[in-house]
Amino acid sequence: MEMYSGHINKLIEELAALPGIGNKSAQRLAFHMIHMPKEKVNRLAKVMMEARENVRYCQECYTLTDRDICPVCSNQKRNHNLIMVVENSRDLAAYEKTGKFEGVYHVLHGAISPMLGIGPGDIKLKELVARLEGDVEEVIIATNSSLEGETTAMYISKLIKPVGVKVTRIASGVPVGGDLEYIDEVTLLRALEGRVEI
Ligand code: ZN
Questions:
Q1: What is the spatial order of strands in the sheet that 166-169 belongs to?
Q2: Which of 69, 82, 95, 125 could anchor a disulfide with 103, C-beta 3.0 to 4.6 Å?
Q3: Predicted model pTM
Q4: Could you tell me the distance, in angstroms and rounded to a whole number, from the CA of residue 37 to the centre of ligand 1?
Q5: How confident is the model at residue 151 (pLDDT cuts 50, 70, 90)?
Q6: 150 Cβ partners below 8 Å, 6+ apart?
Protein backbone atom coordinates (compact mmCIF):
# COMPACT_ATOMS: atom_id res chain seq x y z
CA MET A 1 0.00 0.00 0.00
CA GLU A 2 1.21 3.47 -0.87
CA MET A 3 1.91 5.63 2.14
CA TYR A 4 0.90 8.89 0.51
CA SER A 5 -1.31 9.89 -2.39
CA GLY A 6 0.19 9.50 -5.83
CA HIS A 7 0.41 13.26 -6.27
CA ILE A 8 2.30 13.73 -3.03
CA ASN A 9 4.66 10.90 -3.94
CA LYS A 10 5.32 12.52 -7.30
CA LEU A 11 6.03 15.88 -5.70
CA ILE A 12 8.40 14.30 -3.15
CA GLU A 13 10.18 12.47 -5.96
CA GLU A 14 10.72 15.67 -7.99
CA LEU A 15 11.92 17.66 -4.99
CA ALA A 16 14.26 14.90 -3.84
CA ALA A 17 15.91 14.98 -7.26
CA LEU A 18 17.09 18.55 -6.61
CA PRO A 19 20.67 19.05 -5.38
CA GLY A 20 21.12 19.16 -1.63
CA ILE A 21 17.59 17.93 -0.90
CA GLY A 22 17.37 14.52 0.65
CA ASN A 23 14.25 12.43 0.98
CA LYS A 24 13.36 13.84 4.40
CA SER A 25 13.64 17.46 3.26
CA ALA A 26 11.67 16.61 0.15
CA GLN A 27 8.86 15.20 2.29
CA ARG A 28 8.88 18.26 4.52
CA LEU A 29 8.78 20.63 1.53
CA ALA A 30 6.06 18.61 -0.19
CA PHE A 31 3.78 18.71 2.85
CA HIS A 32 4.54 22.39 3.31
CA MET A 33 3.48 23.06 -0.29
CA ILE A 34 0.27 21.06 0.08
CA HIS A 35 -0.70 23.33 2.97
CA MET A 36 0.31 26.59 1.28
CA PRO A 37 -2.43 28.89 -0.07
CA LYS A 38 -3.01 28.12 -3.75
CA GLU A 39 -1.96 31.63 -4.83
CA LYS A 40 1.41 31.15 -3.19
CA VAL A 41 1.99 27.86 -4.96
CA ASN A 42 0.98 29.51 -8.22
CA ARG A 43 3.42 32.33 -7.63
CA LEU A 44 6.24 29.94 -6.82
CA ALA A 45 5.60 27.92 -9.97
CA LYS A 46 5.40 31.11 -12.04
CA VAL A 47 8.63 32.55 -10.64
CA MET A 48 10.42 29.28 -11.36
CA MET A 49 9.14 29.19 -14.94
CA GLU A 50 9.98 32.85 -15.54
CA ALA A 51 13.50 32.43 -14.23
CA ARG A 52 14.03 29.39 -16.42
CA GLU A 53 12.63 31.14 -19.50
CA ASN A 54 14.34 34.50 -19.12
CA VAL A 55 17.73 33.85 -17.63
CA ARG A 56 20.49 33.47 -20.19
CA TYR A 57 24.26 33.72 -20.56
CA CYS A 58 25.82 37.17 -20.85
CA GLN A 59 27.25 37.38 -24.37
CA GLU A 60 30.59 38.58 -23.01
CA CYS A 61 31.30 36.93 -19.66
CA TYR A 62 28.75 34.07 -19.73
CA THR A 63 27.34 34.79 -16.30
CA LEU A 64 23.62 34.16 -15.85
CA THR A 65 21.67 37.34 -16.50
CA ASP A 66 18.31 38.70 -17.68
CA ARG A 67 19.95 40.79 -20.41
CA ASP A 68 22.10 40.11 -23.46
CA ILE A 69 25.01 41.87 -21.74
CA CYS A 70 25.15 41.71 -17.92
CA PRO A 71 25.36 44.86 -15.75
CA VAL A 72 29.08 44.34 -15.04
CA CYS A 73 30.05 43.96 -18.71
CA SER A 74 27.88 46.88 -19.78
CA ASN A 75 29.48 49.16 -17.17
CA GLN A 76 32.05 51.28 -19.02
CA LYS A 77 33.68 52.31 -15.73
CA ARG A 78 34.91 48.75 -15.22
CA ASN A 79 38.35 47.81 -16.47
CA HIS A 80 37.62 45.56 -19.43
CA ASN A 81 41.31 44.66 -19.81
CA LEU A 82 41.30 42.81 -16.51
CA ILE A 83 39.40 39.53 -16.54
CA MET A 84 38.78 37.39 -13.47
CA VAL A 85 37.95 33.78 -14.29
CA VAL A 86 35.49 32.12 -11.88
CA GLU A 87 33.76 28.76 -11.86
CA ASN A 88 30.17 29.98 -11.61
CA SER A 89 27.86 32.96 -11.22
CA ARG A 90 27.74 32.47 -7.43
CA ASP A 91 31.50 33.04 -7.24
CA LEU A 92 31.11 36.16 -9.35
CA ALA A 93 28.46 37.39 -6.91
CA ALA A 94 30.80 36.74 -3.99
CA TYR A 95 33.52 38.94 -5.53
CA GLU A 96 30.99 41.58 -6.58
CA LYS A 97 29.81 41.78 -2.98
CA THR A 98 33.26 42.98 -1.91
CA GLY A 99 32.76 45.98 -4.22
CA LYS A 100 36.54 46.17 -4.68
CA PHE A 101 37.14 44.44 -7.98
CA GLU A 102 37.20 46.88 -10.88
CA GLY A 103 37.69 44.45 -13.73
CA VAL A 104 35.25 42.16 -15.47
CA TYR A 105 34.67 38.42 -15.18
CA HIS A 106 34.59 35.24 -17.18
CA VAL A 107 32.32 32.47 -15.91
CA LEU A 108 33.39 28.93 -16.81
CA HIS A 109 30.29 27.14 -15.52
CA GLY A 110 32.26 24.31 -14.02
CA ALA A 111 35.80 23.05 -13.62
CA ILE A 112 37.81 20.37 -15.34
CA SER A 113 37.32 17.04 -13.58
CA PRO A 114 38.66 13.89 -15.20
CA MET A 115 36.94 11.90 -12.45
CA LEU A 116 33.51 13.28 -13.35
CA GLY A 117 34.30 13.17 -17.04
CA ILE A 118 34.26 16.98 -17.36
CA GLY A 119 36.85 18.02 -19.93
CA PRO A 120 38.04 21.41 -21.20
CA GLY A 121 35.37 21.30 -23.92
CA ASP A 122 32.61 21.12 -21.33
CA ILE A 123 33.27 24.52 -19.75
CA LYS A 124 33.43 28.01 -21.28
CA LEU A 125 37.14 27.88 -22.15
CA LYS A 126 37.18 28.52 -25.87
CA GLU A 127 34.93 31.50 -25.13
CA LEU A 128 37.66 32.79 -22.80
CA VAL A 129 40.34 32.36 -25.44
CA ALA A 130 38.15 34.23 -27.94
CA ARG A 131 37.98 37.19 -25.54
CA LEU A 132 41.78 37.41 -25.49
CA GLU A 133 41.75 38.61 -29.07
CA GLY A 134 40.72 41.97 -27.66
CA ASP A 135 42.88 44.17 -25.44
CA VAL A 136 43.45 42.08 -22.32
CA GLU A 137 46.26 42.90 -19.89
CA GLU A 138 45.72 40.30 -17.22
CA VAL A 139 43.68 37.18 -16.58
CA ILE A 140 43.19 36.42 -12.89
CA ILE A 141 42.30 32.80 -12.28
CA ALA A 142 39.96 32.60 -9.30
CA THR A 143 38.78 29.03 -9.57
CA ASN A 144 38.30 27.18 -6.27
CA SER A 145 41.26 25.68 -4.45
CA SER A 146 39.82 22.19 -4.92
CA LEU A 147 41.62 19.61 -7.06
CA GLU A 148 39.30 20.49 -9.96
CA GLY A 149 39.86 24.21 -9.47
CA GLU A 150 43.66 23.81 -9.44
CA THR A 151 43.58 21.52 -12.48
CA THR A 152 41.52 24.10 -14.32
CA ALA A 153 43.87 26.92 -13.28
CA MET A 154 46.90 25.05 -14.60
CA TYR A 155 45.12 24.22 -17.82
CA ILE A 156 44.10 27.84 -18.42
CA SER A 157 47.59 29.06 -17.65
CA LYS A 158 49.13 26.72 -20.23
CA LEU A 159 46.42 27.61 -22.70
CA ILE A 160 46.76 31.37 -22.62
CA LYS A 161 50.40 31.96 -21.73
CA PRO A 162 51.46 31.55 -25.38
CA VAL A 163 49.05 34.35 -26.29
CA GLY A 164 51.27 36.67 -24.29
CA VAL A 165 48.67 37.72 -21.72
CA LYS A 166 49.73 37.97 -18.06
CA VAL A 167 48.14 35.14 -16.05
CA THR A 168 47.81 35.28 -12.28
CA ARG A 169 46.31 32.98 -9.66
CA ILE A 170 44.58 34.25 -6.54
CA ALA A 171 46.54 33.50 -3.37
CA SER A 172 45.69 30.44 -1.39
CA GLY A 173 44.53 31.02 2.12
CA VAL A 174 41.22 30.15 0.72
CA PRO A 175 40.44 26.83 2.47
CA VAL A 176 41.13 23.78 0.32
CA GLY A 177 38.00 22.50 -1.36
CA GLY A 178 36.13 25.53 -0.11
CA ASP A 179 33.56 27.03 -2.38
CA LEU A 180 34.39 30.67 -3.06
CA GLU A 181 30.87 31.79 -2.26
CA TYR A 182 31.19 30.69 1.37
CA ILE A 183 34.36 32.59 2.04
CA ASP A 184 34.16 35.95 3.74
CA GLU A 185 34.93 39.17 1.92
CA VAL A 186 38.19 39.90 3.74
CA THR A 187 39.60 36.52 2.75
CA LEU A 188 38.45 37.02 -0.84
CA LEU A 189 40.13 40.43 -1.04
CA ARG A 190 43.33 39.12 0.53
CA ALA A 191 43.37 36.29 -2.00
CA LEU A 192 42.89 38.78 -4.82
CA GLU A 193 45.53 41.21 -3.62
CA GLY A 194 48.02 38.41 -2.99
CA ARG A 195 47.68 36.94 -6.48
CA VAL A 196 50.85 35.70 -8.11
CA GLU A 197 51.85 35.24 -11.70
CA ILE A 198 51.80 31.64 -12.88
ZN1 ZN B 1 28.83 39.85 -18.51
A1: 103-107, 79-86, 138-141, 166-169, 196-197
A2: 82
A3: 0.78
A4: 38
A5: very high
A6: 143
Per residue in 49-103, pLDDT (tens digit) is 999 999 999 999 999 999 999 999 999 999 999 999 999 999 999 889 888 899 9
Residues with C-beta atoms within 5 A of ion ligand 1: 58, 60-61, 70, 73
- The amino acid present at 150, given as its one-letter code, is E
Q: Please answer whether residues 160 and 139 qualify as being in contact, where contact means their C-beta atoms are separated by less than 8 angstroms.
A: yes
Percent of the chain with pLDDT over 90: 69
Which CATH number do you get for residue 107? 3.40.1360.10
For ligand 1, the distance from its centroid to the CA atom of residue 193, given in whole angstroms, is 22
Q: Is residue 153 part of a domain?
A: yes
Q: How far apart are CA 61 and CA 89, in angstroms?
A: 10
C-alpha 163 – ligand 1 centre gap (Å): 22
Cα(57) to centroid(ligand 1), Å: 8
Q: List the domain range (segments joined by +) for residue 114.
A: 76-171
Looking at residue 175, what DSSP letter applies? P
C-alpha of residue 150 to centroid of ligand 1, in Å:
24
